[in-house]
Every structure is written in C-alpha cells, then in structure tokens.
Specification:
Elements lengths: L5 H10 L3 E2 L2 E2 L1 H12 L8 H17 L2 E10 L2 E6 L6 E3 L23 E6 L1
Helix pairs in contact: 1-2
Bound molecules: zinc ion.
Amino acid sequence: MRLVNADALKTDIEENSITLGGVMAIETACAKALIDVAPTVEAYTEEQVKELVELNKKLSEERHQGKWIIVKQDNEGVHEIECPFCKYSKGSDFSSIITVIFERFPPFCENCGAQMKGGAE
Ligand SMILES: [Zn+2]
C-alpha cells in the first residue's frame, strides 16, 4: 500500500493541466474525480498517535501480574494450572503425561495476557 496526499495531488494536477479557453481538460476532470472516489484510509494525527501510545503504556502498566494456580499435581509433576484472573485452565486430567514442567510454566496467560511471574502458587 502507498499513501498519498490526495489534496496535494489534485492541486498538482490542476497546476500542471492544460486549460482550453478557461475550460478544464476532460482528462484533468476525470483524474480529479478518480481521486475523489479512490479508496481511503484514516490517518492518525500526531495527537492521536500520542494518545494511543499513552493508552498502550497505561494498559501495559495495568496488566495483571500473578502466579499460576496449580489445579492438579501428583508425584510425576503438574498436570493442570489455572490463571487466577480469568480462570483459563491449561492441562488436562491426570494421565501419564506431565502437562507443565515446574521450571517451564508459561510466562503469560494465553487467554487474558496476564503476566505470570515466579511460576505457580
Ligand atoms: Zn488469564
């Protein structure tokens, strides 16, 4: 995608077009009409970008931080953990497969994005 300044483009076309008897050439009129109906995207102003950066910073600071709750565990290891914030559960019922190795608890909840520090409680 390439973004252009449509207003500046229309001005350039007007300034560089040939007029016949004060009448705009049909090509110029067509070009300006095409610019007017061209697909557009909303551009953010510098002020809006600053607001979005601040909002992202605020949301990052407010993001939950906690530890996984161990739901199911046996001598083999941890089989199921749960996010304390959204109750998202990772793992399954007891089986021979260890779902989570102690040192490798996921650093984030993949459902709500909460940051998990220090493993589990
Ligand atoms: Zn969660």
